[in-house]
Specification:
- The protein is α/β, with parallel strands linked by helices.
- The protein has a domain at 9-93 and 162-235: Rossmann fold.
- The chain has helices at 48-55, 78-84, 101-111, 116-129, 145-157, 175-186, 199-205, 223-227, 230-235; strands spanning 9-17, 23-32, 37-41, 63-68, 71-72, 85-88, 163-167, 191-195, 208-213, 216-222.
- Helix 3 packs parallel to helix 5 (145-157).
- The model has no long low-confidence stretch (mean pLDDT 94).
- Bound molecules: adenosine-5'-triphosphate (ATP).
- It is found in: Cell membrane.
- Keywords: ATP-binding, Cell membrane, Membrane, Nucleotide-binding, Translocase, Transport.
- GO terms for molecular function: ATP binding.
């Protein structure tokens, strides 16, 4: 008998309208398997943020369902869901608010009741994975933007999430910091969903991409194939940087 491992994420028939009546999602279906790295692409206003906010219950399904590792996102599962879905915001300063890096990274696991050597191991391990262990005793606001983004990733990794969701991870990074973060993300053994307008970054990091457009999944496939389809990109206001050539299949 073949086994069917539970996917990290299953979204089914998800529709959502904001209280003012703006319909942002019109029936989204997607499945992301454990360990996959997937880019979520789409023009401004496509519904990407609205979808992401459903993944950890900031918004709850108007219609349809969201399951993380087989667990329905609902009011009574929210605590567990927030542990399993690690959201890295676009602005690290939305995530870092303690006097030291150590305290920021310890905050989540400590909230789960972790203490002592186990907490210390979690914090060090998470910082080591993002190459920021040396900064453990520094105030986050003394770090560069790129370093703060890495610490923000560590705060989420310290929760040992099922799925890491990143909003525009390459924004405001210089080329070296961008490349270093890509190396870090590539080496993580966690499911990754990355919202990005940076198509080369999606190509570099994610074998698979989804295009969300007008509140529906307009395409789901190999990143390389999607980005090589000029008509598809144009139809959804996606543009590769000038002169960028997608490597041949
Ligand atoms: N709080 C809100 N109230 C009403 N409508 C909203 C609200 N937030 C977003 N919307 C609308 O929902 C739709 C989807 O917006 P959303 O922010 O999810 O798009 P997005 O794909 O993340 O865009 P961007 O790439 O610009 O960040 C848009 O029409 C937007 O105007």
């Amino acid at each position: 008998m073949t086994s069917h491992p539970v996917p990290s994420l299953e979204v089914s028939g998800l529709a959502y309208a904001y209280p003012d009546g703006t319909q942002a999602l019109f029936g989204v279906d997607l499945v992301i398997g454990r360990g996959e790295r997937v880019a979520l692409l789409g023009p401004n206003g496509a519904g990407k943020t609205t979808l992401v906010m459903h993944l950890n219950g900031i918004l709850t399904a108007g219609h349809g369902s969201v399951r993380v590792a087989g667990l329905d996102v609902r009011a009574d599962t929210m605590k567990e869901i927030r542990r399993r879905v690690g959201l890295v915001f676009q602005d690290p300063d939305d995530q870092l608010f303690m006097p030291t890096v150590r305290e920021d990274v310890a905050f989540g696991p400590a909230n789960l009741g972790m203490r002592g050597a186990e907490l210390d191991r979690r914090v060090r391990d998470a910082l080591d994975r993002v190459g920021m262990l040396d900064a453990i005793d520094r105030p986050p606001h003394h770090l560069s933007f790129g370093q703060r983004r890495r610490v923000a990733v560590a705060t989420v990794l310290a929760m040992e999430p099922e799925i890491l969701v990143l909003d525009e991870p390459s924004s405001n990074l210089d080329p070296a910091a961008r490349r270093e973060l890509a190396e870090i993300l590539r080496n993580l053994d966690v499911t990754v969903l990355m919202v990005t307008h940076d198509l080369p970054y999606a190509l570099e990091l994610c074998e698979r991409s989804l295009i969300l457009s007008g509140g529906v999944i307009a395409a789901d496939g190999a990143t390389r194939a999607l980005l090589a389809d000029a008509d598809l990109l144009a139809a959804h206001r996606l543009e590769l940087p000038y002169g960028f050539a997608v490597p041949a299949l």
